[in-house]
Amino acid sequence: MTKKWEITFGLIGGSTALLFFGGIAVTFNQMSLSNFRETYQALSLEGFGSVQETFESLRSMTGLFSVSLFLSLVGLCLALYLSLKGKASPMAALIYLISGVLLLFGTQFIAYPFVFFYLLAAGSSMYRQKIEQRWRSDVSK
Q: Which pLDDT does position 89 carry in this prediction?
């Protein structure tokens, strides 16, 4: 397993999460209450609460999504940098893992398909580290 795979897994997870949750956040932040009311009534969701309450709760939820996505992407960039540097593979794996868990809890478990790629990147980073240690021990014999 090479660095290429862990970097690819991290980039896939981060870019798909950015497209999905970034798109949701931009859409809801640009939407007015009248536009939301039309969509809300077209979907026949009147039984779930008032339009105003639902609109405000969705806007606050997308704010949480945005913050957790931003923090997760910062961690992902740091982990990608450490992976490319190649010296701190366990730290990169830990940061991949923390970024994935942060994204998972910050999006209330909606982002589990994207977090899967973060976890694959962490696992491949740890696997690569074990292979390198095994190779070093074989060479030193």
A: 80
